[in-house]
């Protein structure tokens, strides 16, 4: 059983967290998912409270670490020394991913120095100003690190995790109920080709 940690903070983007958590929660025999933060609970951008399962320092014990997003929450998190210093991540031993502005955290930790990444399209200029090599792509993979840009690209990020840990069949099982009726082939082709393209474009294989 793999350990998956979702990193949360105040003013996180609701859809980014809840869709990620929902997709990961669709299977209980693949991984154990823990919500990690600096407090007992964190409030979303829309005011919803989510209880955490452990402190953010537990990221070092996870097989997979996923960073959520938030256009207000991320700037504050980057300035929080206790938050950033607790993120002891090891891309040689862990799968690490982010959705939208979560890539700012990975960039500032130095995990993507000299490497490509993606983020929410509206945050591209800001991240480029910080030195990030931002691509106009929904998913960018650099070895064991994947960044996804745009809220709905969570399906690519979680799909990447499922395929890395298991296979495409496990991914399909997880995402099956997410796909609109009558469009399975359309979405399956989109998801599979996006992940394959990102993997083939990786410069850190």
UniProtKB/TrEMBL annotation:
Superkingdom in the source lineage: Bacteria
Q: Which InterPro entries match?
A: Class_I_gatase-like, DJ-1/PfpI, INH-QAR
A Pfam family of this chain:
DJ-1_PfpI
Q: Which GO terms describe its biological process?
A: regulation of DNA-templated transcription
UniProt domain DJ-1/PfpI: residue ranges: 3-156
PANTHER family hit by this protein: ARAC-FAMILY TRANSCRIPTIONAL REGULATOR, DJ-1_PFPI DOMAIN-CONTAINING PROTEIN
Name of the molecule in the record = Thiamine biosynthesis protein ThiJ
| Organism of this sequence | Vibrio fortis
Q: What is the lineage of its organism?
A: Bacteria, Pseudomonadati, Pseudomonadota, Gammaproteobacteria, Vibrionales
């Amino acid at each position: 059983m793999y350990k998956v940690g979702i990193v949360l903070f105040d003013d996180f983007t609701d859809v980014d967290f809840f869709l990620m958590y929902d997709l990961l929660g669709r299977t209980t025999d693949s991984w154990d998912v823990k919500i990690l933060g600096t407090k007992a609970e964190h409030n979303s951008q829309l005011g919803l409270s989510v209880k955490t399962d452990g402190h953010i320092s537990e990221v070092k014990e996870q097989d997979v670490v996923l960073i959520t997003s938030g256009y207000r929450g991320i700037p504050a998190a980057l300035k929080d020394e206790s938050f950033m210093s607790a993120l002891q991540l090891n891309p040689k031993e862990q799968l690490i991913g982010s959705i939208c502005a979560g890539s700012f955290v990975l960039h500032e930790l130095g995990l993507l120095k000299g490497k490509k990444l993606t983020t929410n399209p509206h945050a591209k200029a800001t991240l480029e100003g910080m030195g990030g090599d931002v691509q106009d792509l929904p998913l960018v993979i650099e070895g064991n690190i994947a960044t996804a840009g745009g809220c709905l690209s969570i399906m690519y990020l979680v799909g990447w995790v499922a395929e890395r840990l298991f296979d495409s069949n496990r991914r399909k099982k997880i995402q099956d109920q997410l796909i609109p009726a009558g469009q399975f082939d359309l979405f399956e082709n989109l998801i599979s080709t996006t992940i394959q393209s990102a993997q083939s474009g990786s410069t850190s294989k």
